[in-house]
Specification:
Layout: E1 3-5, H1 10-14, E2 20-25, H2 30-45, E3 51-56, H3 61-66, E4 74-79, E5 82-88, H4 93-103
Parallel strand pairs: 1-3, 2-3
Antiparallel strand pairs: 2-4, 4-5
Length: 104
């Protein structure tokens, strides 16, 4: 299950000791709605091993600005609290799987 990530809970989430994947999205964004089901599937498939969260860019300016998000959807991949990879725009599910597997 995906986690809702906000400006308020971001630091707590990052300190849980697992790799983190953040999907930056907005309700009005068509490509974001296309990516949503893929992110949900990955959250189920990697549950317990990777934290997968969604950041609504319209309601979380601090986190969005911190990572310089200018285009959505953007998916960021973190390991040991360090940004190690990103995907801007919608990609095939297999591309996300490859990036996730490198986190483990």
């Amino acid at each position: 299950m995906t986690r809702t990530v906000t400006d308020e809970n971001f630091n707590e989430l990052m300190n849980e000791g697992k790799p983190v994947v953040l999907d930056f999205w907005a309700e009005w964004c068509g490509p974001c709605r296309m990516l949503g089901p893929i992110i949900d599937e990955l959250a189920s498939e990697y549950e317990g091993r990777v934290i997968i969260g969604k950041v609504d860019v319209d309601n979380n300016n601090d986190v969005t600005t911190q990572f310089g998000i200018r285009n959505i959807p953007t998916v960021l991949f973190f390991k040991d609290n360090q940004l190690v990879d990103k995907q801007v725009g919608v990609a095939a599910k297999v591309q996300y799987i490859e990036k996730l597997d490198r986190l483990l």
